[in-house]
Amino acid sequence: MLQIVYIALLAGTVAGAFSTNQSVTEVRKVGHGPTGYEVTFRYYSETANQPKSVLLGGFPLYANALTASRSKTEQIAPWDWQADDFSLFLSPLRPAYGNTTYLGFNMTFEESSGGWVTTLPFPSGTFGYAFYLDCKEGWSSPHCNPVIDPGNPPIQSPAGDQNHSIIQVPFDAKHQVQNYDYALPLDDKTRRGSIAFYNYSSPGSTAPTKDIHSVGIYLPVGYGEISGKKYPVLYLSHGGGGNDADWFNQGRAHNIVDQLIDAQVLEPTIVVTPNFYDLGFSMEDFATNITGENGSDTYGLNGFFEAVRKNYLKHLIPWVESNFHTISEPTGRAWGGLSLGGGLSITMLLNATNIFSHVCIMSNTPSPLPNDPQWNNTGINSVDIFLGAGFYDKAFDNSRSMQDRLSAAGVLNYRSRYFPGGGHDWHTWQDILYTWLRNELVKSKWG
Ligand SMILES: *[C@@H]1O[C@H](CO)[C@@H](O)[C@H](O)[C@H]1NC(C)=O
Ligand SMILES: *[C@@H]1O[C@H](CO)[C@@H](O)[C@H](O)[C@H]1NC(C)=O
Ligand SMILES: *[C@@H]1O[C@H](CO)[C@@H](O)[C@H](O)[C@H]1NC(C)=O
Ligand SMILES: *[C@@H]1O[C@H](CO)[C@@H](O)[C@H](O)[C@H]1NC(C)=O
Ligand SMILES: *[C@@H]1O[C@H](CO)[C@@H](O)[C@H](O)[C@H]1NC(C)=O
Ligand SMILES: *[C@@H]1O[C@H](CO)[C@@H](O)[C@H](O)[C@H]1NC(C)=O
Ligand SMILES: *[C@@H]1O[C@H](CO)[C@@H](O)[C@H](O)[C@H]1NC(C)=O
Ligand SMILES: *[C@@H]1O[C@H](CO)[C@@H](O)[C@H](O)[C@H]1NC(C)=O
Ligand SMILES: *[C@@H]1O[C@H](CO)[C@@H](O)[C@H](O)[C@H]1NC(C)=O
């Protein structure tokens, strides 16, 4: 039985439609530098007590190719942004480099509206943000709690799953170089697909309740209207600490897929975003201390990934295929995942070659060592493999060594995307997803 939890509102470039005082966080084309666009953020206290201060935070400052590294970013402020600069999300967000201590942006109390307001230039892209009330230590401090924008709520299931509201800023060719317009929502709302979250039966699951698990589903526009039509299914996994809403809220995967379908580049495709937490087991259960060479699999990750694979193949995929109009064979199944979900994708590649025809591995954890007999699995040759990471991504080496191991094993049917301005962050994963879907899922048999 299908249970719809929440139908998401697909926000446009103007972030929301709610405000007590008819004012919302707003993305505006201004036609002047530094970026050609500005965003005005507004926060209205929901209680009678006004905070003493409100910080805007949640997004990183900018870096440039001359000074950035995996552990260092100059933290270039929005008004100093230049055309080649990129948004680089490093952890920790306040590294001991550069001369700016980035705490967030102070918002100003506006007597006329009773709201807190600030305006900043933004380049093209997808940015998470939140309000931090009476936060002295800076927004990335564990002592400061994010308050989402009530006028622009995140896509989430259930409420509280996502800590950041999202803005999407269009590209302005006069001022910018890096164009993320491929992730914007389609202007015509009637041509967009829909997102909902569902509960499905997953014995052993501990959340949202016993033996029930949550999953996000995107259905393409027109789904179900043509009798007998079956759709291919793209599974997209979150990473460490994430959940089934991440690819929609932070990754805007539905917009990317909407645009490619609308342009008739991609076959209308169902997108499924599972959640690998609370399935009834955890990573700790598999901590084996197998210290492979150079510490690979120190945490027994593959044991965990194997358990997730078995669980999804037994419970999730059969549920999807019996409740939606799917092409229930490998040519109609693709799998992608990021970070820890990228490690899970390696398991889906090596141990599910008869299930998926396409696998995309993003910013992965270490792959099996070169001498592992798993590389001799001839089934790998039947899978269309895509992999990648950002240049400033902590997983860059894992991704490149995976390529070396595939090559050494004689597996040459892989392609990749290494994103020049990318960290271990959503701009990187959006870029890999878009490149994969646009170039690979159309060329080969899909759907
Ligand atoms: C999914 O399960 C949770 C936990 O029982 C519940 O709160 C939620 O309402 C369920 N969703 C639906 C649509 O039944
Ligand atoms: C940053 O601070 C260091 C040491 O105070 C100084 O030498 C350097 O010039 C400063 N860099 C910039 C970009 O201001
Ligand atoms: C914000 O404003 C307060 C009050 O004026 C000030 O104490 C604080 O240092 C400012 N914080 C930032 C990050 O600018
Ligand atoms: C709008 O702002 C005014 C001025 O601060 C305030 O008195 C009023 O309560 C606000 N309206 C709503 C609906 O919150
Ligand atoms: C959201 O914020 C809360 C409170 O700061 C924190 O405990 C939680 O880990 C955060 N969740 C995510 C997904 O970042
Ligand atoms: C793994 O090794 C660490 C450090 O030696 C130790 O603390 C931990 O208990 C070990 N875990 C297991 C499952 O053996
Ligand atoms: C382990 O690290 C050493 C030294 O960096 C390197 O030479 C070797 O190739 C690495 N081994 C693997 C399997 O990555
Ligand atoms: C594939 O399955 C085998 C057997 O269950 C397991 O030992 C191996 O770790 C799995 N491979 C990966 C990459 O998870
Ligand atoms: C793969 O098979 C070949 C031929 O049987 C063998 O020489 C090689 O050692 C195997 N490689 C691995 C990683 O097991």
Automatic annotation (TrEMBL):
<protein>
    <submittedName>
        <fullName>Carbohydrate esterase family 1 protein</fullName>
    </submittedName>
</protein>
<keyword id="KW-0732">Signal</keyword>
<dbReference type="InterPro" id="IPR050583">
    <property type="entry name" value="Mycobacterial_A85_antigen"/>
</dbReference>
<dbReference type="InterPro" id="IPR000801">
    <property type="entry name" value="Esterase-like"/>
</dbReference>
<feature type="signal peptide">
    <location>
        <begin position="1"/>
        <end position="16"/>
    </location>
</feature>
<dbReference type="Pfam" id="PF00756">
    <property type="entry name" value="Esterase"/>
</dbReference>
<dbReference type="InterPro" id="IPR029058">
    <property type="entry name" value="AB_hydrolase_fold"/>
</dbReference>
